[in-house]
Design goal:
It is a single chain. Helices cover 35% and strands 22% of the residues. It is of the alpha/beta class. The protein has one domain (2-171): Glutaredoxin. Strands 2-1-5-4-3-6-7 form a 7-stranded mixed beta sheet.
Length: 176
């Protein structure tokens, strides 16, 4: 669960839950990042292409991490998004999930475990989603099998950041 996010559609404060069997792609983005805007457009195209096949088994969630909600709302008015991607705002999510570079995504499998964290350009997201729907494990950069996670304890990342990231990846849960 991702707690207390502001819906950019309804302006309500909501908790985002994972439903058993569904794959979630959580996309962290800002209004200023051109790469983030390009990724959002690519995700829109992916949903247009595969949305009917995937149905309710796949959710793509955009989580804006800008500090100023008013600017985000203005951006959404000026550049409306097509339907399909759920859009939320949280200025604290980048700290909670240790987002240090953009674009940045998290993939959650059907059982609710986080299976990928990082730069989406290193992945074939459509294939990853298809594999997760088939309950197949994904491997490579940013996954639990990646050497980054194997060497994680020896890194110079702060202890608090290590605890947060390790807790998220070890439990594999989308909990904050």
């Amino acid at each position: 669960m991702v707690q207390k996010q502001t819906s950019l559609d309804t302006h309500a404060i909501v908790d985002i839950f994972h439903n058993p069997g569904e794959v979630i792609l959580l996309d962290f983005w800002t209004t200023k990042s051109k790469q983030c805007q390009l990724l959002l457009a690519d995700l829109q195209e992916l949903l247009a292409k595969r949305g009917q096949d995937w149905g309710a088994k796949v959710r793509i969630i955009g989580l804006n991490i800008d500090l100023d909600l008013a600017k985000v709302r203005q951006h959404m008015k000026e550049q409306p998004q097509e339907s399909g991607i759920e859009q939320y705002w949280s200025s604290s999510a980048s700290d909670i999930y240790r987002v240090s570079e953009l674009p940045h995504v998290i993939l959650v499998d059907g059982s609710g475990k986080i299976v990928f964290v990082g730069d989406p350009s290193k992945r074939k997201l459509e294939n990853d989603i298809d594999n997760l729907l088939k309950k197949r494990q994904i491997t490579g950069d940013g996954t639990k099998e990646d050497s980054f996670w194997k060497d994680f304890r020896r890194s110079d990342t702060s202890l608090l950041a290590k605890k947060n990231i390790y807790r998220i990846m070890k439990k594999g849960a989308l909990l904050v």
